[in-house]
């Protein structure tokens, strides 16, 4: 077995992340009795790494790779197992300019879902490095050629190049790196954040990030670090240049904000949600300071963090989830029976790579801002105009107007005939990149990258009959037109990507 130092060298060289722990972890520290750790370690005393950050996603069905070991589905161009181009599937089956509004729910449902997802799942991308090469690889330059870690998506229009796609980093000790441990283990991916609903998108999943997010006077006030502007609190600006997803725009003066999750800057609604919870933490801290005179600032901070995690759990299970899975789904889920230490809480690969991405079908084209509480005046922005527009956060009362606007904006109806708006398939990050991305195609490609079994295999796993022809899908995919499109694209029900079939 490799020593920790040897594994560190392997990780730096190959770009793998996570890896086997080399010593038993002691969970006797008093802090673990009263408060959960940022990394999620020791939430379970018997299995301290279950659900912790930098641990592999859980598998419900073993990974399916093109070579049975590490290469993503579709990597090898074999006629008898050929998968359709992800972009072609999106164009012919998923992308829609026409959007029907949901007549019961507003866009807050979608926005909370994204905020929740960023508390639960993040698979790190592989470093731009080939196992046998020292220099990093330019994936865009290799358009049309599959060379690790590049698995780019070709546009169907030959005048265009590719949608750059990098594979998720493998968990150290699996895939290519398993040979260094003297064994062959299928490639697995790493969840870089905790699997618990614990507010990690607010507080981070490492002790190091948590320290940056605490105010400089946390020992006294118990507050989160923040920027003051026009008498109001905002997320701190990332002066430390920590790694965050913040694509500077050539059209706008952009600030990069720091939060517990590096994706906070991606779009205005999400950024406002992060700002809301920062303010709420500091509101709670002020309340506790005024009533708990004997508490230290450190204890106040921890208690606020504990309260917010509990409130996120309540909102998720009491308010959000019943709308998503309905009364029948909640009945199947059953009542909470208390903590069960034998259950592994780690997020499953299929949840992170396919199931939770259902939320993309709920994203409407527009974001409405209600300019004043007692006025009918509104401002409408197309969704792509809000990507990485972080400079808007400092505008007067933007937090209030966006939150009110999310309440006024109807949710997009989940309709398989109008699956995903062109705001996400044709204009993703349009103003921050010279070429926009296509989220639906990326979702399909990510499922193949992670070795997700086909839609047909998941049907059988979930208790449905396996389809032997496309007509066998008629009870779940009711549209004859969609079934014909699936047949033209895939040719065999066993080839249908899980994400596509599920949508």
Put the structure in a nutshell.
The chain has 503 residues and is mostly helical. The chain has helices at 4-14, 31-34, 86-94, 108-120, 200-203, 207-213, 218-221, 268-291, 297-333, 349-353, 398-408, 422-425, 439-449, 455-461, 480-490, 498-502, and strands at residues 55-56, 95-96, 101-106, 153-154, 162-163, 190-191, 227-229, 232-234, 366-370, 378-382, 410-412, 420-421.
Summarize this structure as a short list of keywords or feature phrases:
503 residues, mainly alpha, two-stranded antiparallel sheet, two-stranded parallel ribbon, 12 strands, Haem_peroxidase_sf_animal, iron, Haem_peroxidase_animal, metal ion binding, heme binding
Describe the structure.
The protein is mainly alpha-helical and 503 residues long. Among the domains are: 138 residues, no CATH class; 49 residues, no CATH class. Helices cover 33% and strands 7% of the residues. It contains 16 helices and 12 strands. The protein has a two-stranded antiparallel sheet. The protein has a two-stranded parallel ribbon with strand order 2-12. Strands 3-11 form a two-stranded antiparallel ribbon. A hairpin with a 7-residue loop joins strand 9 and strand 10. Helix 8 crosses helix 11. The two termini are 43 Å apart. The model has no long low-confidence stretch (mean pLDDT 88). GO terms for molecular function: heme binding; metal ion binding; peroxidase activity.
């Amino acid at each position: 077995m490799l020593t920790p130092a040897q594994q560190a060298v392997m990780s730096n060289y190959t770009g793998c992340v996570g890896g086997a722990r080399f010593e038993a972890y002691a969970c006797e520290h008093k802090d673990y009795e009263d408060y959960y750790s940022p990394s999620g370690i020791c939430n379970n005393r018997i299995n301290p790494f279950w659900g912790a950050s930098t641990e592999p996603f859980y598998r419900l069905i073993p990974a399916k790779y093109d070579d049975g070991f590490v290469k993503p589905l579709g990597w090898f161009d074999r006629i008898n197992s050929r998968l359709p181009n992800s972009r072609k599937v999106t164009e012919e089956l998923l992308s829609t300019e026409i959007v029907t509004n949901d007549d019961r729910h507003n866009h807050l449902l979608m926005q909370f879902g994204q905020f929740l997802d960023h508390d639960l799942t993040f698979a790190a991308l592989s470093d731009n490095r080939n196992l046998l090469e020292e220099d990093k690889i330019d994936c865009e330059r290799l358009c049309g050629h599959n060379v690790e870690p590049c698995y780019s998506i070709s546009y169907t229009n030959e005048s265009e190049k590719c949608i750059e796609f990098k594979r998720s980093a493998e968990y150290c000790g699996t895939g290519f790196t398993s040979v260094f441990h003297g064994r062959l283990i299928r490639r697995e991916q790493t969840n870089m954040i905790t699997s618990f609903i614990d507010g990690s998108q607010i507080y981070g999943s490492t002790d190091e990030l948590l320290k940056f997010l605490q105010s400089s006077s946390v020992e006294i006030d118990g507050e989160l670090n923040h920027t003051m502007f026009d008498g109001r609190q905002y997320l701190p600006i990332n002066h430390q240049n920590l790694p965050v997803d913040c694509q500077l725009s050539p059209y706008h003066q952009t600030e990069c904000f720091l939060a517990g999750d590096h994706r906070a800057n991606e779009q205005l609604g999400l950024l406002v949600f992060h700002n809301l919870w920062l303010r709420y933490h500091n509101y709670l801290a002020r309340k506790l300071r005024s009533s708990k005179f004997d508490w230290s600032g450190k204890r106040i901070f921890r208690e606020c963090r504990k309260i917010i995690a509990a409130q996120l759990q309540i909102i998720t299970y009491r308010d959000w989830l019943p709308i998503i899975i309905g009364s029948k789904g909640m009945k199947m889920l059953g009542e909470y029976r208390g903590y069960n230490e034998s259950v592994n809480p780690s997020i499953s690969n299929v949840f992170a790579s396919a199931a939770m991405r259902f939320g993309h079908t709920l994203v409407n084209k527009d974001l409405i801002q209600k300019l004043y509480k007692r006025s009918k005046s509104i401002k409408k922005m197309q969704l792509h105009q809000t990507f990485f527009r972080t400079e808007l956060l400092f505008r007067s009362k933007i937090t209030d107007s966006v939150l009110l606007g999310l309440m006024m904006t109807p949710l997009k109806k989940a309709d398989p005939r109008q699956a995903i708006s062109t705001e996400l398939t044709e204009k993703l990050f349009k103003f921050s990149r010279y070429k926009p991305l296509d989220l639906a195609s990326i979702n399909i490609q990510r499922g193949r990258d992670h070795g997700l079994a086909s839609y047909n295999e998941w049907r059988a796993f979930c208790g449905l009959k396996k389809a032997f022809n496309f007509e066998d899908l008629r009870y779940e995919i009711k549209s004859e037109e969609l079934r014909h499109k699936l047949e033209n694209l895939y040719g065999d029900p066993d080839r249908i990507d899980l994400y596509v079939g599920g949508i």
